[in-house]
Design a protein that fits this description.
215 residues; alpha/beta; Rossmann fold; seven-stranded parallel β-sheet; 9 helices; 35% helix; globular
Length: 215
């Protein structure tokens, strides 16, 4: 089975920041594919301003169409209720040592608020991406509290293609300063999304009048 990076999120909308990060993680960890999983009902985000799940899925599909190593799954869209990652990981059925869950450093520090974080950590390798300019301290008390509670065997940086045999992995992947909330505001004002989202995504937003795009 292909070694897979799992990149979940609302993708509201998907943008170049997501795509560059995904490609960087794939390359640095020598993975075969990246699986994008748009959340049907994100449990940690308000639904206000959230485009319909079918539209968010369609935009991801358009964004990655020309990248063979990228795939998109509608698993969370087909499942009723909140999109809990632990349920998604189990449903995929990928062996834990071949599935790499990609999350931001702020999300990692908040991981104990997720549904069954210890069970989640046992079913995949967790990959933490420090936000550019953030003060994420892998050796700090907050990070070690999460490691202890999820039963992880340490934390290690992997930026050279060498994947640590165990524990949580930190990858300093490329982080573009693109904000989805800013993109939604630009769309509401009918402003250009060029160089921020792939052209097919920009066309889709305008055609379907997403995020208040003016008629």
């Amino acid at each position: 089975m292909a070694r897979t990076a799992l990149l979940g999120g609302s993708f509201n909308p998907v943008h170049y920041g997501h795509l560059v990060l995904a490609d960087d993680v794939r390359e640095r960890l020598s993975l075969e594919r990246v699986l994008f999983v748009p959340a049907g009902v994100p449990p940690h985000k308000p639904v206000r301003g959230l485009a319909p799940a079918a539209d968010r899925y369609a935009m991801v599909r358009l964004a990655i169409a020309d990248t063979p190593a990228f795939e998109v799954s509608d698993l969370e869209l087909r499942r009723a209720g909140p999109s809990y990652t632990v349920d998604t990981v189990e449903a995929l059925g990928i062996p834990p040592d071949e599935l790499f869950l990609v999350i931001g450093s702020e999300t990692f520090l908040d991981l104990l608020s997720w549904r069954e974080p210890r069970r989640l950590a046992a079913r995949c390798r967790i990959v933490v991406i420090p936000r550019a300019g953030s003060a994420f301290d892998a050796d700090g008390a907050a990070a070690h509290k999460v490691l202890r509670e999820i039963g992880a065997d340490g934390i290690a940086v992997a930026d050279t293609g060498e994947v640590p045999a165990r524990g949580v992995i930190v990858v300093h992947a490329t982080s573009l300063p693109i904000s989805a909330s800013e993109l939604r505001a630009r769309a509401a004002a009918g402003r250009s999304l060029t160089y921020r989202v792939p052209p097919p995504v920009a066309t889709y937003i305008a055609r379907h009048r997403l995020y208040g795009w003016p008629a």
